[in-house]
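Usage

Read records sequentially. Each one opens with the input sequence:
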Amino acid sequence: MKAEIITIGDELLIGQTIDTNSAWIGWELSSAGFDVRRRTSIHDNRDEILNALSEAAERKPELVIITGGLGPTSDDITKQTLCEFFNTKLVPDREVLEMIEKMLRRRNFPMNENNRRQAEVPESCRVLPNAAGTAPGMWFEKDGTIFISMPGVPGEMKYIMQEHVLPDIKKRFRSQVIIHKNIMTYGMPEARLAEILEQFEAELPENIKLAYLPSFGVIKLRLTGTAGTLNEIEPLIGAQTSKLYNIIPDLIFGEDEQTPEMAVGQLLKIKKLTLSLAESCTGGFLAHRITSVAGSSEYFAGSLVAYSNNVKTGILGIDPAILASDGAVSSRVAAGMAEGARKLFKTDLGLATTGIAGPSGGSADKPVGMVWIAVSSDSGTITEKHIFSTDRIANITRFSLAAMNLLRLQIINR
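and closes with the structure output:
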């Protein structure tokens, strides 16, 4: 079953409002077995709306979801345009009017002409009551396609979708089952990972597809399976997931939406280990990520942001001679920071970062984007060097991810 999404509003096009509606609707429709083929954002303009509706109708999807342009003000023209497209007219709806009056009384707001106009709906539509707001949803059918128009306010849209749209379309369409399985990886460029998985991808069953979704070094491998029932597709997805674990075991840190910090926290809990940090170039961002996980107090002791050399020598105990000879961004300084943090906080593991986030401060030997990471434990200290980009914010994110990955691998190999 094919579906499309149309969002209406100038605020979406100029970046004033982030379109979270489409993401939510897309996920819900996919979970209901629909193949979402297209998402269109358009100007709050009669011609643009008519063109988008006409083009969608020509493609003949089973379902078109429309959000936005249903407010009480003069710039909200979706209802009038829908009347034009479906060759109908606006008529007052008593039930909608009563709901609006009741809501305004509860909020102690006066009723005005704009509110009354919201109770007008296209005569040919099926009204979808909106207990979360004043604008109702509207259900149309034309030439085998269902068109559903809803408010753009996320809370109101979700109410109408959950209370009316999703239950009804699930009854109407006994469609295929679509499930997604995400395998989270880190530590290899996308092109190289695709090369390694080339044979795996070629041997996938016809009803399972693989997608690569990269972000700052983390690559989400999304397996999408389609079948008539859940019982048909779940074992196939499970088998392909197991194959991935056999092919790239060291690269996989989690599944679905698990983050590196969640994976690290889980390992620390399982092995009953404690962690401390010494951060220079990440400036506390690594600690922020670690502590964003609920329950991190069980394994995380604390972090020292050792941004200046005085802090590195005075608190972490780095030998000034090493700083003078090797520089702050070096293997020996990173190792000393990790060891110093572990000693200072009395933890099983110490993790440290020292690097050049940029955009300035680099040299031929130590370019912007270089970071040294170290992990210290009772088994010794290991260091690792990476060179990333020249973008400061991106580098701080990448430094923290590389640090957590090195820590993860050290915990696994203990």
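Summary fields computed downstream for this record:
- The radius of gyration is 28 Å.
- The chain has 16 helices and 17 strands.
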